[in-house]
Design goal:
It comes from Linnemannia exigua. By secondary structure, the chain is α+β, with helices and mostly antiparallel strands. The protein is built from 2 helices and 5 strands, in the order E-H-H-E-E-E-E.
C-alpha cells in the first residue's frame, strides 16, 4: 500500500518507471488506470480536438490526496500516432506532451470515478487541485 498525503494536501509526486513500477508501488492505481483507460482516451480526444483515434498514455508519476477517500493525480506521457505512426505531440520540456488525470477512489463504498483531465502539460508542470471535469 502506498504512503498517502495528509488530509487535504497533495502528497509529493512518486515516479513510475522500471525502478518504481506501479504494480508494486500502488496496484490499486494500476487497476484504476486500466479500468478508465478508454474514458481517459475519449476525454483527451474531445478536449484536445485531435483527429487521432488511438493516442496512448504512459503514466510517469502520481500523487495522492486524502479526502473522503483518495484522489489520485497521475501525470501521463501522450503519444499521438497520427496517420504516419509518429508522435505528433509537442510539450515544452522534453518535446513530449503530458496530461494530468484525476481519479477518485473510496474503498469502503467501492466508488471509482474519473473526475478530471488537464491537457497540454509539460513534464515539470505541478499537479493542480482543480481539473476540468471530463464530459
Amino acid at each position: 500500500m502506498s504512503a498517502i498525503a495528509p488530509p487535504g494536501g497533495i502528497g509529493k509526486p512518486k515516479p513510475i518507471d522500471k525502478k518504481h513500477p506501479l504494480a508494486k508501488s500502488d496496484p490499486e492505481l494500476k487497476r484504476l488506470l486500466l479500468k478508465f483507460n478508454r474514458q481517459i482516451s475519449d476525454a483527451y480526444i474531445r478536449v484536445s480536438m485531435i483527429a487521432d483515434s488511438s493516442p496512448t498514455f504512459e503514466p510517469v508519476s502520481y500523487a495522492t490526496q486524502v479526502v473522503a477517500g483518495t484522489n489520485y493525480y497521475v501525470k501521463m506521457r501522450v503519444t499521438q500516432h497520427g496517420w504516419s505512426g509518429f508522435n505528433c505531440g509537442g510539450g515544452k520540456d522534453d518535446g513530449a506532451e503530458y496530461i494530468h488525470v484525476k481519479i477518485f477512489y473510496q474503498s469502503w463504498s467501492k466508488t471509482e470515478q474519473f473526475t478530471g483531465i488537464s491537457i497540454r502539460k509539460a513534464r515539470n508542470d505541478p499537479f493542480e487541485f482543480d481539473m476540468p471535469i471530463p464530459l
